[in-house]
């Protein structure tokens, strides 16, 4: 059990379809704090750093195109075990496989061409959270 912080992105589909409030509500209902929040946009440098592990994947151009579709809401949240708990709240990467009741299961969509629009990103480890906070909130580091 530990107090952790996490970087959460409401991706362009989540912003355009009006799910920012839902993400915030679910965090607050669970008693987590939101320490920073802003509307921002992706750029090539941020995406290459953020998705460094996926640069060689054949679907990386799809991820880039998806993340450029509109504004993104970035937030830093804190709480006990927030990293694993929020990833359960987000659900599986592919919205077709995500459980109902999760953000991706309720609001995400897999398109006929295989494109995944899955509403949110969240850090998967303490180290990655710190790395991602530097990418999306450089003014705080
Ligand atoms: N097979 C795929 N086809 C298309 N896009 C994909 C595929 N796998 C992953 N992605 C995209 O890349 C993102 C990062 O994939 P990753 O494997 O890190 O999943 P994740 O950790 O659940 O998602 P995220 O890092 O966004 O929280 C996914 O959220 C999705 O937008």
Automatic annotation (TrEMBL):
GO biological processes: CTP biosynthetic process; GTP biosynthetic process; UTP biosynthetic process
InterPro entries in the cross-refs: NDK-like_dom, NDK-like_dom_sf, Nucleoside_diP_kinase
Active site as annotated: 121 (pros-phosphohistidine intermediate)
Binding site for ATP: 11, 59, 87, 93, 104, 118
Keywords per UniProt: ATP-binding, Kinase, Magnesium, Metal-binding, Nucleotide metabolism, Nucleotide-binding, Transferase
EC number(s) stated in the UniProt entry for this protein: 2.7.4.6
Pfam families assigned to the protein according to its UniProt record, in alphabetical order: NDK (PF00334)
Domain Nucleoside diphosphate kinase-like: 3-141
UniProt-listed CDD domains: NDPk_I
Necessary cofactors: Mg(2+)
Keyword Zinc tagged: no
Family from the record: Belongs to the NDK family.
Protein name, as recorded: Nucleoside diphosphate kinase
An MF annotation (GO) of this entry: ATP binding
């Amino acid at each position: 059990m530990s107090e952790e912080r996490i970087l959460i992105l409401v991706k362009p589909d989540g912003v355009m379809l009006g799910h920012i409030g839902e993400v915030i509500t679910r965090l607050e209902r669970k008693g987590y704090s939101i320490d920073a929040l802003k509307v921002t946009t992706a750029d090539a440098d941020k995406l290459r750093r953020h998705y460094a592990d996926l640069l060689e994947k054949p679907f990386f151009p799809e991820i880039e195109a998806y993340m450029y579709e509109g504004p993104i809401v970035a937030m830093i949240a804190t709480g006990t075990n927030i990293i694993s708990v929020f990833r359960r709240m987000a659900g599986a990467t592919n919205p077709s496989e995500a459980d109902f009741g999760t953000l991706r299961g309720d609001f995400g969509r897999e398109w006929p061409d295989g494109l995944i629009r899955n509403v949110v990103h969240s850090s998967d480890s303490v180290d990655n959270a710190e790395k991602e906070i530097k990418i999306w909130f450089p003014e705080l580091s």
